[in-house]
Amino acid sequence: MSLNLRTHTEHFTNPLYLESGRILEPYDIIYETYGTLNDDKSNVVIITHALTGSHHCAGIYEGESKVGWWDGLIGSGKTVDTDKYFVICSNVIGSCFGSTGPMSRMYHNLEHYRYKFPVVSIKDMIKAQRILFDRLDIHHVHAIIGGSMGGMQALQFGVTYPKFATKIIAMATTYATQPWAIAFNKVASEAILKDPDFKQGYYDSQVVKEQGLTGMAIGRMAGHISFLSHESMASKFGREYKRDDGLYELFGKFQVESYLEYNGYNFTKWFDPLAYLYITKAINIFDLSRGCDSLKEAMQKIQSELHLMSFKNDLLFRSFEMKEIDIILNEIGNTNHNYIEIDSDYGHDAFLVELDKFKDYIKDVLNG
Q: Where are the domains positioned within the chain?
């Protein structure tokens, strides 16, 4: 069987009413599908992506070498088996991979939105996805799976649309973004805003794609530190020094420094700086209890079978943040959930990298 990867774009002319009270219209959503939808539409699995992710979560495009970001998990005969399930992954609004975001053109004058783009929340992102699924005549799904910001979306689906998913798997995430994560995002946003080449948001995106943006690269380096852990950095780089640099050269580098530089500067050539500011804002203001009196009240709305997965050495969203959700669900007598902590030293990015540690668990949940 094949992956049956297809990319689609849907255009919406009805206004999207946002949590802030503002309106987005019209707007586009780009999404990918894998596998085949069965007759009663009971085999749908939704994948929700993280901060810098996109709709391209599996497979490979013709003429390219880079596979989708969760390709090890999704495909024919894999954990999320596309011979069995119809998988949908859409790019969130506010991003820069084809769905409407700050560098999209406004309908009335064809100028880029830039700062005229409204602040969007995680709730807005899933509302737009829900409207997309309605258009596709999909009103209930077998499962929603996401990690990090994708996990935020998965949890928000459970609270906002309680009857939509039979099962939800939320990984490496939190119920509300904590000061530690907000602080890392602050370093990144400040570095972008203070870069003269950012031009106060009026940069030429083509120039940034070709030359990169130094401020954003520095901010991304800080972000990268939060995605790893002491242990993973020690095992990955140790105190290895670049072989062709002298130890007493002022700008001689350790391998870890080269790694951060490479990833930081490379990142700025494929991710838009304004999209980064908008999406980190959505992450910062994420709070499952918003609109409810408490987190407990929000949790009472969840009707899906809920699976919570944290990673032992995740420094960005700590295990105890996920455990907190588990404790509250136990307090309110919710017996339809499970919490596991994956033994991992990798850090936050373990949900993208250490698939062998949890793929059997996900397979069991899906096949149920």
A: 6-177+286-367, 181-281
Taking the C-alpha atoms of residue 81 and residue 19, their distance in angstroms, rounded to an integer, is 35
CB burial class (10 A; 0-12, 13-18, 19+) of residue 187? middle
- The residues carrying an active-site annotation are 148, 314, 348
Half-sphere exposure of 108 (CA within 13 A, CB side): 4
Locus of tokens 């120039």: 207
Give the 3-state secondary structure of residue 47. strand
Closest by CA to 286, choosing from 187, 160, 102, 167, is 160
What CATH number does domain 6-177+286-367 carry, 3.40.50.1820, 3.30.70.3270, 2.30.110.10, 3.20.20.30? 3.40.50.1820
Binned average pLDDT, 10 residues per bin, the chain of 368 residues: 93 98 98 98 98 97 94 98 98 98 95 98 98 98 98 98 98 98 97 98 96 97 95 96 94 96 96 98 98 98 98 97 98 98 97 98 96
> What is the tally of helices (H) and strands (E) in the chain?
12, 12
Please tell me whether residue 86 adopts helix, strand or coil conformation. Answer: strand
For domain 181-281, is the CATH number 1.10.287.110? Answer: no
Q: Distance of alpha carbon 147 from its chain centroid, rounded?
A: 7
